[in-house]
């Protein structure tokens, strides 16, 4: 393994000026912008190595530590062998009842690994560290219809194309210049006048001992299926598609999704569990006399819902129309059930100064005017479908609907009237 002086092509007795001169010459030669595209990969790695060598050898303290220790260290101090002066851990230095294992356990350090010169357990991550995680935002329509998400990413695995190296064919890989291929660097600690050395995972190569360009790593693609009716927050996990390390369970690929209201879209529905809430405007004439509207509300899947309120049924402020099975799909339900759609009623009253003759319904309609229904939920930029879906519905007063719906309709928290949201296990199972 080349020394830092060999990397720069100078003698160990070289002056600072000679080191600077050698660095400038090599930097001009290997700078990525000064070479052809075919040589750029190798030059990037070489340039990084000579720069790291120059930074150490041009610093008086770092060079002295390097010359004394013979290897790059992150801090000055002593090597493990310096402790031999105390007669060993089992000898007179610490007493016969204090051995190396006791000392290692005391400091949380594996000294046997230091003596061996290997990187020991530094390349053995915890199982959770092998997982690869992604986070995305989804819309209400994504959760209603379900969505397939494709992610292409880089991972450590045993790849046939690269023979398990994790690199593309002809990719350049050299010993990490920071740890000189060991995967670990030495840090020093002092306690009570005593100094000791500790090996930690190299941050530059992540304990691998090798360095390569990130673009050279192999890639794979995963498809994450978000189910119809999924909750506003959730995860999709694909086993064995995370990182792969010897003697450890394979990591997982995990997609975390979160519902976020898109400020660019006018989302007309509010979700509460498996139910959907929305609002419409109804004229006073329709509220008093009943109506039939074939395009009352357009659903998320672009169907128009047909609602017929019989003559004589009076709609009052705070009432709502509940349509069964027109809410969010319920994942895993026995009969592909869906939640309910709650439609809040807003009454449009006539202007001040109107007059009416008692008992003259037609005159009343002329005075009030038959206001065309303009429900908020009809504001959909999709192409109108002339067909409508007949519905079975109920009209409930505000005391018979969930408090959360009354809160939604009134735009303020309601605690004094309405029911809880719990439908019980039986109703929840069948989507009631």
Automatic annotation (TrEMBL):
Q: Is-annotated flag, keyword Metal-binding?
A: yes
Task: Please name the GO terms of the biological process aspect recorded for this protein, alphabetically.
Answer: protein folding
Zinc fingers (CR-type), renumbered ranges: 146-230
Q: Could you tell me which InterPro entries the record lists for this protein?
A: DnaJ_C (IPR002939), DnaJ_domain (IPR001623), DnaJ_domain_CS (IPR018253), DNJA1/2-like (IPR044713), HSP40/DnaJ_pept-bd (IPR008971), HSP_DnaJ_Cys-rich_dom (IPR001305), HSP_DnaJ_Cys-rich_dom_sf (IPR036410), J_dom_sf (IPR036869)
- Per UniProt, residues of the CR-type domain are 146-230
Molecular function per GO: Hsp70 protein binding; unfolded protein binding; zinc ion binding
Q: Could you confirm whether the keyword Repeat appears in this record?
A: yes
Q: Where is the J domain?
A: 3-70
- Disordered, as annotated region: 372-391
Q: What keyword terms does UniProt attach to this protein?
A: Chaperone, Metal-binding, Repeat, Zinc, Zinc-finger
CDD domains on file: DnaJ (cd06257), DnaJ_C (cd10747)
Q: Which Pfam families match?
A: DnaJ, DnaJ_C, DnaJ_CXXCXGXG
What is the protein's given name? Uncharacterized protein
- Tell me which species this is from: Pichia kudriavzevii
Taxonomic classification = Eukaryota, Fungi, Dikarya, Ascomycota, Saccharomycotina
